[in-house]
């Protein structure tokens, strides 16, 4: 898609002709300007190495003859500056978001209360058995409806918007094409940062379940009407009723550049439900809602979740380096340590209290010699060792391992071998570490152990964890046997 128009900064009269290029796969969005100056009107100074256009938050576009109408570009980064002839140059920006039908004058005005998001595999993840192509006596027309709603918290709920399209097939009377998208509903307007954070949080939960890196696309939104330039003459108006009070909202379609280096979004193969750790196929709606809500609530555990997610996708750039493998192993161990600390907050409390009490003793002493002695000899309570922490987690999930018929002898030795390799790698003794069977098996088991910790943290019962891991080929093969 290509849109020609005039482009300028909010509240500026300096309008520059140019074109907006939207890649069909949304992998790139580029604004190309034909200009003798920056958008601010300042002339290019090539003797000065400092540019003023590295990042432009908002750029407005007038494309009255095009289908997008008024346009707001958000998060625009300098791409290149190329000479055309004389004093005329091509100035290129890489754009993250395009909002059509609206002109937004300030970053703080990007407030929404409804937004539609498209995730790959969301139909398999949410619809479960309802997404099967069952035979029907009378084909129905294409329809779109909200099939279910998940309440995340008092502010946010997520609608699963279901669609089916019926078409004639050569092999049978008709076939059903099924898909869905998600709609985030907020009971008040929230800014773009909150929107993006919630979308990423849900994305990571789906990545955890599928063990695949995913992306998402923002499709459309309803924006606070008062924040739209010239809203008095605005025609793209939606009236919403909330507590019998009409709210004016402006509708905008959103084009967003994918941040992941991946295959075109629309061409991604849908992941079979058997490869999902949990989904609408394995959970009731209440159970899936509870798991999702707990995932969102566990803000303090999200860094631990990130340690795990970083190990599920190795990319497609050739062989894995030892450095990359070693670092990810260390990250897994750090995640397991952090989860033990989360389960045992008493140690943190004891140490914080000890510090406060020791300071009182220190302040009460007048003798410098005694103060020196207290500083050197009144030590912190002994901390649990890494081997103890790993053994604690192995014991915590011993019934799960027993049900999965794991090798008890290998699990018993795991805390001590894992500690040994962690110390060697973290202290730079790479020459003493063989990149072979031992480290590979320690890595695999550390990953599955952290996976159990995460399932446990979002409220999945241990019996269900057994069922989910036993039926998932990706995780099941990492259990030592």
Strands, helices and their partners?
Layout: E1 2-8, E2 16-22, E3 29-35, E4 55-63, E5 69-85, E6 88-100, E7 111-118, H1 122-127, E8 143-151, E9 156-167, E10 175-191, H2 192-210, E11 217-224, E12 237-242, E13 245-256, H3 285-297, H4 302-309, H5 322-343, H6 345-364, H7 368-377, H8 386-396, H9 398-403, H10 408-426, H11 437-457, H12 462-470, H13 473-476
Antiparallel strand pairs: 1-2, 1-4, 2-3, 3-6, 4-5, 5-6, 6-13, 7-10, 7-11, 8-9, 9-10, 11-13, 12-13
Q: How is this structure best described in words?
A:
Strands 1-2-3-6-5-4 form a six-stranded antiparallel β-barrel. It has 481 residues and is of the alpha+beta class. The two termini are 54 Å apart. It contains 13 helices and 13 strands. About 5% of the residues have low confidence. Helix content is 35%, strand content 27%.
Please outline what is shown here.
With 481 residues, this protein is an alpha+beta fold. It has helices spanning 122-127, 192-210, 285-297, 302-309, 322-343, 345-364, 368-377, 386-396, 398-403, 408-426, 437-457, 462-470, 473-476, and strands at 2-8, 16-22, 29-35, 55-63, 69-85, 88-100, 111-118, 143-151, 156-167, 175-191, 217-224, 237-242, 245-256. It is 35% helix and 27% strand.
Distance between the termini: 54 Å
Note the main sheet.
Answer: 6 strands, antiparallel, barrel
Order of helix and strand elements from N to C terminus? EEEEEEEHEEEHEEEHHHHHHHHHHH
The percent range for helix content is 25-40%
The stretches of 5 or more residues where confidence is low (pLDDT under 50) are 132-139, 231-246
Q: What Rg do the Cα atoms give?
A: 28 Å
- In terms of DSSP E residues, the strand content is 25-35%
Instruction: Determine the structural class based on helices, strands and strand pairing.
Output: alpha+beta
Q: If strands are numbered along the chain, what order do they take across the biggest sheet?
A: 1-2-3-6-5-4
Envelope shape: globular
User: Kindly state the mean pLDDT as a whole number?
Assistant: 80
The total of beta strands comes to: 13
Query: How many DSSP H or I helices?
Result: 13
